[in-house]
């Protein structure tokens, strides 16, 4: 009964989510030999103002430094 | 200090949530003998496009096959 | 597809866990009308040294003050 | 690679969140000696109708009894 | 900064875990276009006596009915 | 009712945990103005073989490359 939670930044299209849950499910099937119907995947999206690395909100990192942030 | 997280599909009325947290709290009191005031219940709702079983989003399952989905 | 996580202190017998998962499942069935086979319950036990309220570990609270702790 | 999840009530300004992730990151640095860039903090906000203590939703507690609720 | 939690039954070899984290990371890279070094995977194993579907512990299901359980 | 989960590598002494929960609790008090007795902190330790960044288990990273790993 594997249960997978994927925490990612907000703003992915339903098409990307469709690919994501399929790819993650396939990954577990191939690595563990689990049947697909036993596998649940939960996508948990976060806002940029709710996530920080090194004590700096992604919101600030993004606006201030124009870096990629790996949503 | 039991802490309970209930992950369910979006769209339940406040009346249902009221019943849910009461019933879950009572369940812990009766099974474990904990005092109710020690028990926290957190309801964490998910969108249909953020949940998949067998690699298929509930959103697609619902729209395509008209099955019940156990929200 | 409700998924319930119950975080409780370590040291419950399998008999208590059996009662607990049954009672929690019944609580969801009665409050939400979900079928039992759709409901997963996960018990996640913690050690007393891994849990704190008010900045004080349960381990210390228990040893120092002889209070009940609501495992 | 510490990963910290802070579950709090909804409604904090970005300025408060900025302070929060900084203060929590500093707390881990001082207590564990971890480098700040290894520390991730995730803020997970909940609605008052999705949180209960003693079987009573915060939503009801707040409206009915005019108590502070420790958002 | 995707963060993935994989909850599975206890008892997988380190070799299987090695395959699992590689496969899950590749799945996110291919579905979302994220760089691998941004992706964290956490394996969270549970005991059979700490997991239930339909109100029945996996421990009991396994011992009583000799079914496969989809560890 | 803030609830904080701190996921860190296994092997911290109880003295370090004592400092950690105190420091994290103080951080929330200073950033949010919450009363300490409303704040719960849960330490969730993981094994090196259960955590990966970039598709590589910390267990392998540590053994193969002798790098620091930010437990």
From TrEMBL, chains A, B, C, D, E, F:
Keywords assigned: Isomerase
InterPro entries in UniProt: 4-OT, 4-OT-like_dom, Tautomerase/MIF_sf
Documented EC number(s): 5.3.2.-
Signal peptide: none
Name of the protein in question: Tautomerase
Keyword Isomerase among record annotations: yes
Similarity comment: Belongs to the 4-oxalocrotonate tautomerase family.
Pfam families: Tautomerase
Organism: Dolichospermum heterosporum TAC447
Residue ranges of every copy of the 4-oxalocrotonate tautomerase-like domain listed in the record: 2-55
